[in-house]
Amino acid sequence: MLLTTGGTIATEVDGDGIARHASSGDDLLAASGYGEVLVDDLMTIDSAEMTPQRWQQIAASVRGHVARGATGIVIAHGTDTLEETALWLALTCAVPVPVVLTGAQRSGDHPESDGPGNLRDALTVAASGEALGVVVCFAGQVYPAVGIRKVDLTAPNGFAGVSPVGQVRDGQFVRLADSPSAFLGTVTRPALPRVDVVSLYPGTDGVALDAYARAGAQGLVLESMGAGNANDVVIESVSRHIENGIRVVVTTRVPGGALAAGYAPGQKLVDSGAVMVPHLRAGQARVLLMAALATGSDLVSVIERLG
Predict the structure, then answer these.
(1) pLDDT tens profile 150-159
(2) Which of 124, 164, 190, 271 is in Cβ range 3.0-4.6 Å of 141 for a Cys bridge?
(3) Cβ atoms of residues 116 and 29 within 8 Å
(4) 140-150 confidence digits (pLDDT tens)
(5) Active-site residue, 8 included
(6) Same domain, 157 and 22
(7) Active-site residue among 8, 81, 92, 204?
(8) Which of 4, 5, 79, 102 is catalytic?
(9) Are 236 and 207 in contact (CB under 8 A)?
(10) At what angle do helices 282-295 and 82-92 cross, to 10 degrees?
(11) Are 56 and 171 members of one domain?
(12) Of 166, 132, 161, 133, which is closest to residue 147 (Cα–Cα)?
């Protein structure tokens, strides 16, 4: 089953040089040359318009198609927020068939469009029958949902952050490693916990943290400087919000490396009750915190296992 949601894979560039949606799922399938696959054109949006409610719509569609006999699911998705959708599905949508997200870095009418090849590879993975859970297939590489992130705007394989669990070689899926389950629990309600991201910079104050708390945030992700560091004004604000019941996790704006509280400011955050997320960066850390809150999971143990 091919579910389409929009994204670069379904676009063509108009006379003004702007990529706009132009292709249906049947069009994408025809361009891939894969063969007969059932198609569900679920939505047509730029992935910047993706929302938690739309994650739930995708999850419900996946569960529904599997209940009706689908043996593999491919989701064509824009790359800007593919990593968040993939993780949400991995955390909250357990089905006994492969669920493979893919997309494209180049529009469908580009002379070297990568969409048809990516879709063909993703369909190959979905048809393999392997117990993979939710994965991302891009440029022949197959990645687990947990830890993947977009790192390049134009490169054919714009994703990194985690080692692949498989590859597509000569039209066949080759498994390289296990893909451990990330499932926390099924979430069916449309209203999800509000979790916001605050990016720190020299001179940050508590204004954004306070505003999100007033708006009803149940969780906050602090995108810290360096090894989990923040100034005293931010630390005081974080401590106050934790005392009021808001969960706070800490990531870093640094692209690589495992985060740990190695300096006094980071330790102060931990002492206040904030939880360091070692490997996930802000986008996926937010999804992880949302899913932990929505499923009533113990946040520390979830981060120890998946963060």
Answers:
(1) 999 999 999 9
(2) 164
(3) no
(4) 999 999 999 99
(5) yes
(6) yes
(7) 8
(8) 79
(9) no
(10) 30
(11) yes
(12) 161
